[in-house]
Amino acid sequence: MRLTLIIIGLLATMLISCSSESEQDKQYQDVEGEKVFNPTLLQVNIPENFPELTYDLNSNPPTKEGFALGKKLFYEGKLSSTGIISCGECHRQEFSFTHHKHIVSHGVNGLLGTRNAPPIQNMAFLNEFNWDGAANHLDMQPIIPITSEVEMNETFVNILNKLAADNTYPPLFKAAFENGKIDTANMLKALSQFVVTMISADSKYDKLIRNEGGIAFTAQEKAGQKLFENKCASCHAGTLFTDQSYRNNGLPLDPEYNDVGRKLVTGLAEDTRKFRVPSLRNVALTLPYMHDGRFKTLNDVLDFYSAGVQDSETLDPILKSNNNLGIALSQEEKEQLISFLNTLTDTNFIFDKRFAEF
Ligand code: HEC
Ligand code: HEC
């Protein structure tokens, strides 16, 4: 019995190594007797205080060439019907890839969306995307902004024609993908290869957690961290500062948008006005706040948690424990919390040339 298992095991190992060898062979194959497909694999380093990746790198291994194409596409206005709205227009690096000046997103012809652009950082660790989780795979997420009438308002057929007609793109697709095709699958894969490498893990908080030496919190930051752990970390949990669940944190309904959040995806009444708990990494830079960008400052956010939380059927139970609505906070505690939140800013990420347009 054991012997059989060992033999099966050996056979399986041989099969796996054969197939990986043939994968290798494929990469170094002569194409039409001349060109050699030989992309350079990019190492995606997971910071030691981070969880496992959720993105399956084996299904779309990032390469230097795929990254370069993805980055060019990210900053490409041709992805929109008007030729000027790129992904990078709404996701700006200096604000951790959010849209700073706009409460809700601003797309083609100045049309307004209904939601605030979230930061693009650490996407490779998330299970679902957008405030309501409407996209359950990173590769599929861009279909939403590209085809949205108020965002990029473009079709894939048009985009692919525009890219094929632009001299710079055909060689980039050839370098990044073995079949070299300018098609939707390759375009989405390239965008993901760029986005999965956008890992922000170098804040003062991270350096302290990783014991990188010479880093200490001030008394005020330490007090804020303690408050955060007691009052906020049940939802803004763990290294990513989100447990990735959908919750109603008691924002009064905005009559203008009447956004029901997660219910749009599940259709369930119990999901009404629930939104994904956002990560608070780089939160000092990602203003304005909440799914509709209603708060301009972190102080406004804390005033809301301490005095503005509104009861409703779907309000998260954590925010109405012992019949008290919200999270009681003194002015001093608010200041301490903000000092702690400021330690989550990662300037290396903001200034990382790899992700910059120019
Ligand atoms: C007009 C502004 C705008 C443009 C252009 C835009 N986005 Fe976004 N992006 C948003 C908004 C707003 C959301 C949140 C949408 C929602 O929750 O419904 C978002 C969400 C995302 C998310 C999910 C973030 C998360 O935390 O779940 C990713 C990834 C993303 N965008 C990538 C892209 C890419 C790639 C492109 C280009 C193909 C792009 N965006 C173009 C505004 C924009
Ligand atoms: C019951 C879960 C829960 C608790 C507890 C909680 N939050 Fe939140 N938080 C959320 C949810 C959900 C959102 C998004 C709500 C929305 O936009 O509709 C949010 C949004 C935020 C935002 C806006 C982030 C952005 O990118 O727009 C900040 C800042 C924030 N919370 C800070 C805190 C702080 C500080 C505490 C503790 C005092 C706290 N939260 C406690 C669930 C919670």
- Could you state the order of secondary-structure elements as H and E? HEEHHHHHHHHEHEHHH
Main sheet overview = 2 strands, antiparallel
- C-alpha-based Rg, rounded: 23 Å
Into which percent range does the helicity of residues fall? 25-40%
Mean pLDDT: 90
Oligomer: single chain
Task: Explain what you see.
The chain has 358 residues and is mainly alpha-helical. The chain folds into two domains: 57-199, Orthogonal Bundle (Cytochrome Bc1 Complex, Chain D, domain 2); 204-348, Cytochrome Bc1 Complex, Chain D, domain 2. Helix content is 35%, strand content 2%. The protein is built from 13 helices and four strands. The protein has helices at 2-28, 64-74, 87-90, 143-147, 156-165, 169-176, 184-196, 204-209, 219-231, 263-266, 298-307, 331-342, 347-350, and strands at residues 30-31, 35-36, 246-247, 275-276. The strands form two sheets. Strands 1-2 form a two-stranded antiparallel sheet. The longest helix is centred in the N-terminal third of the chain and has 27 residues, at 2-28. The radius of gyration is 23 Å and the shape is globular. The protein starts with a helix and ends in an 8-residue tail after the last helix. The model is unreliable at 1-28 (pLDDT under 50). It binds heme C (2 copies). One heme C is lined by residues 231-232, 234-236, 247, 249, 251, 275, 277-278, 280, 283, 286, 289-291, 298, 301, 305, 316, 318-319, 327, 337.
